[in-house]
Amino acid sequence: MMRPSAQAAALALCLATLVASAQVHRHDPLTSAETDALREVSMEPEKKLPLYLQYARARLTSIEQLRSDPKLASGRGVKVRDLLADFKVIMDEMDRNVDSFADQKLDFRKALKEIIQTDSQFQETLRALKEPNQQASAEAGEYEFALLDAIDAVDGDLDNARELLPEQEKAAAEAKARAKERSKSR
Q1: Element (H or E) spanning 101, and its range?
Q2: Which 3 state secondary structure label does DSSP give 128?
Q3: Are 34 and 55 in contact (CB under 8 A)?
Q4: If 143 and its partner were Cys, which of 19, 39, 80, 124 is the partner (CB 3.0–4.6 Å)?
Q5: Distance CA 156, CA 88 (A)
Q6: 33-71: per-residue pLDDT in tens?
C-alpha cells in the first residue's frame, strides 16, 4: 500500500504529464498570416469577424476539394477530420469575439448580418457532408464526431448572431434618437 504522500506525488506527476502532453499536441488552426491579419484589426469587429468567416470558408473549401479529387483519397477521412476540427476552433473563436464586442457595446450590425448569411451557407455545406455517398461512407466514420462538433459550433454561432442583431439594431436606433434630441436642444 502506498503512503498518502507517495499517492499525492504520483497523482501530481500524472497530472503534470497530461498537461504537458496536451500542450505539446495543441494545434493552431490559423496560419501565421491569418493570425497577423486578425491582430491588425483586433478592435474592429466589422473587419475582424468577416476574416474569421473567410478562414472558416477556406477550410470548408479545402474539404470539398479533398472529397472531389480521387487522387487525394489516401488518408482523406483523417484530413477532413482535421480540417473540420480547425473549422470548429475558428467558429468558436469568432463566437467568443462576437460576445466580447457585444459586451463592449460596439456596433457591428453589418458583420452580424454577414455571419447570419454565411453561417446558413455553412450549415448547408456541413449537412451535405453528413450525407456521404457510397464511396465516401467508409471514410465518413473517421470524421463523424468532428462533423457533429462543427455543426454544433455553426448552430450555436448562428443562434448567437440572430439573438444579438435585434439588440444591436435597438441600441443603434436609441443612439440615433439621442443624437437627434441633442441636435434639437442646441
Answers
A1: helix 76-103
A2: helix
A3: yes
A4: 80
A5: 11
A6: 999 999 999 999 999 999 999 999 999 999 999 988 888
